[in-house]
Write a structure and sequence with these properties.
There is one protein chain. By secondary structure, this protein is α/β, with parallel strands linked by helices. The protein is built from nine helices and nine strands. It has a single domain, classed as NAD(P)-binding Rossmann-like Domain (Rossmann fold, 3-Layer(aba) Sandwich). Helices cover 47% and strands 18% of the residues. Helix 4 packs parallel to helix 6. The structure holds NADP nicotinamide-adenine-dinucleotide phosphate (NAP).
Length: 260
């Protein structure tokens, strides 16, 4: 199925690298005008320039920290001023700061996850999604049309060792997705989540080899996912083909089964 996003304006947060960059590329290929937000200005500007040349569409970059409400509001206003609308929001920006809750070391109980690492991950992965959805949905309601797709994770469904903060956000994203599907559906806006399995981006490649091997072993299709695997799911959910899908969590994980 050929998916077209011609004449649509799509905003991809965390779009300079990894899954976000593959998504920006897939959307530009489908004819959308793409706005990329990220913290990495050099990578973001380079990608925006390359995609505009390759696909003959408008591609913009803004350095936006999604956890900063003031910056998010101003950046949304700037897109609306330039393009008049945001049709698609891909809430993709996310970070990890892994540590166990507690650990017994030499017979002593030690607190491992630092409070600042808990707060930081909540700020970006959960509050960032809230900030962007609230700012973008205002215009979508006025136009009675929109697509919001949020990045959850397989670990948001099943939990994962050493990821208290991250799992809290990815489970929270599923909760917010289901609330907004109910609240915004009446305005022609659909809100869905994608739950990727283990995808070969820097976030995952930086993990120890033995952990990567365990991930592949737990994935029935026998490989890590690619950023493009997830980009295609975002593209489908952002398209007219998905107009009756609302409040769904689409697992894109090669059938991964998580153990203890
Ligand atoms: P990635 O390669 O680390 O890329 C994430 C991008 O988001 C980076 O360019 C990063 O910029 C940017 N970013 C970080 N904090 C930001 C902020 N406050 N505001 C704006 N941008 C920010 O990650 P990924 O693997 O592509 O993951 C993308 C999404 O999928 C995340 O939400 C992640 O949780 C989710 N996910 C990934 C996997 C996986 O296996 N990779 C699995 C399940 C879910 P800097 O690098 O400059 O910080």
């Amino acid at each position: 199925m050929e998916i077209s996003l011609k004449d649509r304006v799509a905003l991809v947060t965390g779009g300079a690298r990894g899954i976000g960059a593959a998504t920006a590329r897939a959307f530009a290929q489908a004819g959308a005008c793409v706005e990329i937000w990220d913290l990495d200005t050099e990578a973001g500007e380079r990608l925006a320039g390359a995609l505009a040349d390759e696909h003959d569409v408008l591609v913009g970059f803004q350095r936006v920290d999604v956890s900063d409400r003031g910056v998010v509001d101003a950046a949304v206003a700037s897109i609306l001023e330039r393009h008049g609308a945001i049709d698609v929001l891909i809430n993709n920006a996310g970070i990890v700061r892994d540590a166990q809750l507690l650990k017994v070391k030499n017979g002593e109980l030690v607190r491992k996850m630092a409070e600042e690492d808990f707060d930081k991950v909540i700020d970006v992965n959960l509050k960032g999604v809230f900030n962007c959805a609230q700012a973008v949905a205002e215009g979508m309601i006025a136009r009675k049309r929109g697509r919001i797709v949020n990045a959850s994770s397989v670990v948001g469904l099943y939990g994962n060792f050493g990821q208290t903060n991250y799992v809290a956000t990815k489970a929270g994203v599923i909760g917010m997705t289901r609330v907004w599907a109910r609240e915004l559906g009446r305005y022609g806006i659909t809100v869905n989540a994608v739950a990727p399995g283990f995808i070969a981006t820097e976030m995952v490649r930086s993990m120890p080899e033995r952990v990567l091997e365990r991930m592949v072993k737990a994935t029935p299709v026998g490989r890590l996912g690619t950023p493009e695997d997830i980009a295609r799911a975002y593209l489908f959910l952002a398209s007219d083909a998905a107009s009756f899908i609302n409040g769904a969590v689409l697992s894109v994980d090669g059938g991964v089964v998580l153990g203890t």
